[in-house]
Design goal:
The complex is a heterodimer of chains A (about 450) and B (about 220). Chain A has about 450 residues and is α+β, with helices and mostly antiparallel strands. Helices cover about 55% and strands about 15% of the residues of chain A. Chain A folds into 3 domains: about 5-150, Beta-Lactamase (2-Layer Sandwich); about 210-295, Helix Hairpins, CATH 1.10.287; about 300-454, Heat Shock Protein 90. Chain A has 9 helices and 12 strands. In chain A, the strands form 3 sheets. Chain A has a 5-stranded antiparallel beta sheet with strand order 2-1-5-4-3. A 5-stranded mixed beta sheet of chain A has the order 7-9-10-12-11. In chain A, strands 6-8 form a two-stranded antiparallel ribbon. In chain A, helix 2 (about 10-65) runs antiparallel to helix 4. With about 220 residues, chain B is an alpha/beta fold. Chain B folds into 2 domains: about 1-120, Rossmann fold, CATH 3.40.50.2300; about 125-220, Orthogonal Bundle (Arc Repressor Mutant, subunit A). Chain B contains 8 helices and 11 strands. Chain B has helices at about 10-20, 35-40, 60-70, 85-95, 105-120, 155-165, 170-180, 190-205; strands spanning about 1-5, 25-30, 45-50, 75-80, 95-100, 125-130, 135, 140-145, 145-150, 210-215, 220. In chain B, strand 7 and strand 8 (about 140-145) form a beta hairpin. The two termini of chain B are about 20 Å apart. The chains are: A alpha+beta (about 450), B alpha/beta (about 220). Chain A: GO terms for molecular function: kinase activity. Chain A: It comes from Rhizomicrobium electricum. Chain A: Keywords: Kinase, Membrane, Phosphoprotein, Transferase, Transmembrane, Transmembrane helix, Two-component regulatory system.
Chain lengths: ~450, ~220
């Protein structure tokens, strides 16, 4: 669509034109009412003056000395006609003979009427009356001045109306143009992003109008999408990298079977070994998919009130024999019931993963403790050990998928345990802190306050 | 025993069919949900193994439809590893058990046996017996050759599940799911630790073992 056509098809243009039209219409109605009211009040004024003049003529005629009556009335007319204000029209006649006035004599007509003077084509409004039998008086006003004023008024109104309509149209165009321009920048940004320029953003000021606010919201969304894509890319790279090692091992093993195994038993043992490697790979995939699903948040709809004390008691029931076999001193300090809104299985898996880590990264006879309770009004879950702990700079890194500390590279494990813990924590709107237990590691999960009220 | 397999992937179908045939089962194969429903209506099967993802009507809908027709043939549902909630969905639809692909034949066989046994067991006995072992489910007591054995609650639950399936191999995952109600594998030797404690308690003072390890597959209690 061409640019001008797009200008006319914007919503803002249509609105501005609509408002302009409505403004013009209301103005026309206003003008109409003013016109009619002015006209009526002007005419009412005229009639009052006319009636005053007639009354004074009648009074002069009736109160004059006998024989002087017509003369007195004529004098009033003459006096009035001397004034330079030449709107006034008078006629005083006896029978059909004009005694005074500036109108030709005419057939006496009584009451209020308008007539046109043939010579000037001016319209005259006035009242005719009988002063005495045979004596007729007419007083009127030339309406030409009123007509002229009205014409001028209407013309002025017309000009104002026209100007306002033109202004409204101009305003509509300007509004529409600014609208189209801003939309165009958004469109261009979107096209750019679609073309792969992921870092492009919509220009938007911090404290702007609704357009700016929309732009800011879109930009925030783009930031989030970019971060997610970045993490996805990172995960794919990590997976590719971390899968290569076990797959290479598997391949080597199969190669060796082919070259070295002689007897049935040797084959069986080698195949068992290969199967175990496959199972390890599958376990990594399962863990990755579980993390991905937790991060997707679908499980949130299944949230119920979960008692943290119950979770760690379950963890104790499950882990007590394992800890005994691993020669760790395992303590559970479950206080009163602490309710959080969450998924019991995931919370149990969180504790389970932390306990697995505690066993894997501490020497024999280490104290390992699980605790639940309230801290500053927030439900907390703590897994603490007295092992070597994690150096401060590594604490944020260990949460990443596949990240493993140098010293634990050689130990079994997928490097996904804490990543899953972090995902579960995030799903529950909780906070994860890896603290120093002096010595050892103290993992604290702080749940949101509102979560306890479920 | 006739088993109906509803699976669209020929590779998996072949793997399951061959494996179950070796165990002496007759397997009938359907490739779509509609076909599966027709066959289920026509024949009398002891068990149905249904893939969750099928072309056209999926496994969940198929099971739901059959259950609505009050067909009570036990169902074992198969799925590719994807869903956290797949298990719950499957069980809600009316499946009796759920197994994630890829799986070992021994795992499938163990579950098939457990389901068939569970559904064919009539009445709810309050006493379980396996060899010289006796369990009273109401009194929560266990005795071997008449001598009382003291068990922790977790150990009791573990033995109860094994004895209910006496003579059949129970896999590690089945124990995690049914004894500890875990929908994930904690990945440490939890089952092994609990099992060794249970064993030492019930075998103490006896020359024969009651619980046997089936290497690479699971555990079995002598019937």
């Amino acid at each position: 669509m061409s640019y001008p056509r797009r200008l006319f098809r914007t919503d803002s243009f249509r609105h501005a034109i609509l408002y302009g039209g409505l403004f013009g219409l209301s103005m026309a109605v206003l003008i109409g009412i003013t016109y009619v009211m002015l006209n009526q009040s002007f005419k009412a004024n005229l009639m009052r003056e006319i009636d005053d003049d007639l009354t004074s003529m009648r009074t002069a005629y009736l109160t004059a000395k006998p024989g002087k009556a017509l003369h007195e009335a004529a004098e009033i007319v003459e006096d009035r006609l001397l004034a330079p204000d030449a709107d006034d029209v008078f006629l005083l006649q006896r029978g059909r003979v004009r005694v005074a006035g500036n109108l030709p004599s005419m057939a006496p007509r009584l009451g209020v009427f308008a007539m046109t003077v043939p010579a000037s084509r001016h319209t005259i409004l006035g009242r005719g009356a009988q002063l005495a039998p045979g004596v007729y008086a007419f007083v009127g006003r030339d309406l030409q001045q009123l007509k002229d004023t009205e014409t001028r008024l209407l013309r002025a109104f017309g000009v104002v109306l026209l100007v306002s309509l033109v202004l409204a149209s101009l305003f509509a165009l300007l509004l529409s143009r600014s609208f189209v321009r801003r939309i165009d920048t958004v469109t261009q940004t979107c096209r750019g992003i679609m073309a792969g320029q992921m870092s492009r953003r919509i220009p938007a000021a911090e404290h702007g109008d609704e357009f700016n606010r929309l732009g800011l919201a879109i930009n925030e969304m783009l930031d989030r999408i970019q971060a997610l894509m970045e993490s996805l890319r990172q995960v794919s790279t990590d997976i590719a990298h971390d899968m290569r090692t076990p797959l290479t091992h598997l391949r080597h093993r199969l190669d060796r079977i082919r070259g070295e195994a002689q007897t049935q038993d040797e084959y069986a043992a080698a195949v068992d070994g290969a199967t175990a490697e496959c199972d390890k790979l599958l376990a990594i995939f399962t863990a990755l998919l579980r993390i991905a699903q937790i991060e997707a948040g679908a499980r949130r709809s299944e949230f119920r009130a979960v008692d943290l004390a119950h979770v760690i008691k379950s963890a104790h029931d499950i882990y007590a024999p394992v800890m005994e076999d691993a020669v760790r001193d395992f303590k559970v300090e479950a206080g009163a019931a602490v309710a959080v809104c969450g998924d019991e299985q995931l919370l149990l898996q969180l504790v389970s993963n932390l306990l697995n880590n505690a066993i894997a990264h501490t020497p024999d006879r280490t104290d390992i403790a699980v605790m639940s309770g309230m801290e500053n009004g927030r439900p907390v879950l703590i897994v603490a050990d007295r092992g070597p702990g994690i150096p401060v700079p590594d604490r944020t890194k260990v949460i990443r998928r596949f990240y493993r500390l140098e010293q634990s590279r050689t130990q079994p494990g997928s490097g996904l345990g804490l990543a899953l813990v972090a995902a579960v924590v995030e799903l529950h709107g909780a906070e994860l802190e890896l603290l120093d237990n002096n010595p050892g590691l103290r993992v604290v999960v702080r749940f949101p306050v509102s979560s306890a009220s479920v | 025993m006739d088993i109906l397999l509803v699976e669209d992937d020929p590779e998996t179908a072949l793997y399951v069919t061959e494996g179950l045939q070796k165990l002496g089962q007759a397997v009938h194969w359907a490739t779509t949900g509609k076909d599966g429903i027709c066959q289920a209506r026509a024949g009398h099967y002891a068990l149905m193994i249904v893939d969750r993802m099928l072309p056209g009507m999926d496994g969940l809908s198929m099971v739901r439809m059959l259950r609505a027709e009050s067909c009570d043939t036990p169902v074992l549902m198969l799925t590719t590893m994807s869903g956290l909630d797949d298990r719950v969905d499957g069980l809600n639809a009316g499946a009796d058990d759920y197994l994630t692909k890829p799986f070992a034949m021994s795992e499938l066989a163990a579950r098939v046996n457990a389901i068939v046994r569970r559904t064919s067991r009539n009445g709810t006995s309050t006493r379980l017996k396996a060899g010289s072992l006796e369990m009273d489910l109401l009194e929560r007591t266990v005795s071997r050759e008449g001598r009382q054995v003291e068990l922790q609650p977790q150990e009791f639950k573990l033995l109860e599940y094994l004895m209910q399936n006496a003579g059949r191999t129970i896999t590690r995952m089945m124990l995690l799911e049914n004894v500890w109600n875990l929908d994930f594998d904690p990945g440490t030797n939890i089952v092994e630790s609990h099992m060794s404690r249970l064993r030492s308690k019930i075998d103490r003072g006896h020359s024969t073992e009651m619980i046997h390890t089936v290497r690479g597959h699971g555990y079995v209690v002598s019937p």
